[in-house]
Design goal:
Blueprint: H1 3-13, H2 29-50, H3 59-82, H4 85-89, H5 103-121, H6 123-131, H7 140-159, H8 167-186, H9 190-196, H10 200-218, H11 230-261
Helix pairs in contact: 2-6, 2-7, 3-5, 3-8, 5-7, 7-11, 8-10, 10-11
C-alpha cells in the first residue's frame, strides 16, 4: 500500500463520517503544526525572546484565563450529563452502534470537538510560564501531558467519539475545575497562597486517582460483550500509564522526599 493510499485510508475510510469534514479534525496537519509550534516556542523561541527581558506579571490575564478554564470545563461536564451520559454510560460498558447518527451521538461529537479546542487553548498556560520566566515549571511531565492530551483528543474526535469515551472528559474536566479554582485563588497574592498551599499536593493526588480510575474503566473494553472499544482503550491506557508514572514521580520528588528532608 502506497503512502498516499495509507494516508487516505486512515484519514478518510476509517474516520468518523460525522466529524471527518470538521475544521481541525479533517486532517492531522493543523494539530501537529500547532503542537510543533507550541513546543518550539516554549523550548527555544520563547526563552530566547525572554532572555534579557523582565518577566511579565500578567496577573489580570491569568485570572481571566483561570476563570475561562473553570467555566468551560464545568460547561463540558454539564453538557455531557445533559446529553444523557449519566443515564446510559455511567461506570459500565454498553454496546454502542459505531458512529450513531442519533441526537445524542451528534451531541457527543460536538462536545468532543469543543473539547479539542479547549485542550489546544491549554497550551497558553505553558506560554505564560515562558513570559513570566517560570521555566522550572516547564518540565517533561508538563509538556508531555499537554501535548499527548491534544493528540489523544484529536484521535477521539476523528475516530472514537462514543458514550463511553465521554467518561474521560467528565472525570478530567471535573478535576480541572478544582485545579483552576486553586490557581485562581492562588493568584490573589501571598496571603491567599498560604491558605491554599495545603491543597496543592491533593490536586496531584486527584490527578493520579483520575488516571487509575480511567485505566480501570477502560479495561472494560476487553470484557466479552463490550465490542468495538479495544483499540481506543489500548491507546488511552498506554497514555494514562505514562501520565501516572510522571505524576507519581513528581509527587514523590516534590512532596514525599521534601517532607522527609525537613
Amino acid at each position: 500500500m502506497s503512502l498516499i493510499k495509507l494516508y487516505n485510508y486512515f484519514n478518510n475510510e476509517v474516520a468518523d463520517p460525522r466529524t471527518n469534514d470538521w475544521f481541525i479534525v479533517r486532517s492531522p496537519v493543523p494539530v501537529l503544526l500547532i503542537t510543533f509550534s507550541y513546543l518550539y516556542f516554549v523550548l527555544r523561541c520563547g526563552p530566547r525572546f525572554m532572555k534579557d527581558r523582565t518577566p511579565y506579571k500578567l496577573k489580570g490575564f491569568i485570572r481571566c484565563y483561570n476563570i475561562f478554564q473553570i467555566v468551560t470545563n464545568a460547561w463540558i461536564v454539564y453538557a455531557i450529563l445533559e446529553a444523557g451520559w449519566y443515564d446510559d454510560y455511567f461506570l459500565y460498558c454498553v454496546y454502542e452502534e459505531k458512529f450513531p447518527r442519533t441526537p445524542q451521538g451528534y451531541k457527543f461529537t460536538i462536545i468532543t470537538w469543543y473539547l479539542l479546542y479547549l485542550k489546544i487553548i491549554d497550551y497558553i498556560e505553558t506560554g505564560l510560564f515562558v513570559l513570566r520566566k517560570k521555566n522550572n515549571q516547564i518540565s517533561f511531565l508538563h509538556l508531555y501531558h499537554h501535548a499527548s492530551t491534544v493528540i489523544y483528543t484529536w484521535i477521539c474526535a476523528k475516530y472514537f467519539v462514543s458514550g463511553m469515551a465521554m467518561t474521560i472528559p467528565v472525570v478530567n474536566c471535573s478535576i480541572h475545575v478544582i485545579m483552576y479554582t486553586y490557581y485562581l485563588l492562588s493568584s490573589f497574592g501571598p496571603s491567599m497562597q498560604k491558605l491554599t498551599a495545603p491543597i496543592k499536593p491533593f490536586i496531584t493526588i486527584a490527578q493520579m486517582v483520575q488516571f487509575v480510575f480511567l485505566i480501570s474503566y477502560s479495561i472494560q473494553a476487553y470484557i466479552p460483550g463490550c465490542p468495538g472499544q479495544e483499540f481506543s482503550a489500548a491507546i488511552l491506557i498506554f497514555n494514562l500509564i505514562i501520565n501516572f508514572i510522571l505524576f507519581y514521580n513528581f509527587y514523590r520528588k516534590n512532596y514525599v522526599e521534601k517532607k522527609k528532608q525537613k
